[in-house]
């Protein structure tokens, strides 16, 4: 059958399931709009919390943290929003977009019809993975952009005040924040890989999404076990806040490079497992 399709006049596998079509389908999903609303609302919730509770102050503990400088400027507020959400909130859209890819088609019983269109299995996975990663990246960008705009409106524009003392020049602020966002996205590739792999193994989207979030949480718990010593260095969770090094007077690359290498290595293995499993899977839904 595949040989007949490949020899059909005008048929080109790379032209099936265009990225534009898949992106429009995903953009119209209610869960996409809800997740965008949640991410856009978080900065406003934080501003309201600071307005009600007053400006944060680290003088009582004797140690100034990123949270204590949140109201210093719009840039500080954006960095604080990332710090507050990177550990869990930003995990959810990545798991949702990547875990809801293949499993949702299977749950709707439309997967076999897509493949009968005919869309090659590898093409289907590449299209869905590319769109899922694109939406995940958009989620990573949406939060700091809204936070920067809302924070600037509430606290004014100025240099990024550093918890360690001093500040970054205004011209260096946006590039440093962009670097932070890029690293957070790379560090979330492990969650993306887990969700995508699970999505090819189950017909339940919530199972794939919940499984990826659960395994990410387990990784965070293991990283908190100091008895593991240097073994924690191979856990992606161990490096998830290495981006703090980007908010120093002198940019430090060591932790971010190690964290990115660990995350990419895990992600490549998980993506390969997803493609391998789906290529051999019997599609009955």
How does this structure look, described?
By secondary structure, the protein is mostly helical. Helices cover 64% and strands 1% of the residues. It contains 12 helices and 2 strands. It has a two-stranded antiparallel sheet with strand order 1-2. Strand 1 (160-161) and strand 2 (167-168) form a beta hairpin. Helix 2 (19-27) crosses helix 8 (121-155). The longest helix has 35 residues, at 121-155. The relative contact order is 0.13.
What is the radius of gyration? Answer: 21 Å
Query: What global shape is seen?
Result: globular
Beta percentage is under 5%
Mean pLDDT: 84
The tally of strands reads 2
**Element-by-element helix/strand order:** HHHHHHHHEEHHHH
Arrangement of strands in the largest sheet = 1-2
Structural category: mainly alpha
Largest sheet: 2 strands, antiparallel
> How far apart lie the N and C ends?
19 Å
**Count of individual helical segments:** 12
| Percent range of helical residues | 55-70%
Question: Which regions are unreliable across 5 or more consecutive residues at pLDDT < 50?
Answer: 1-5
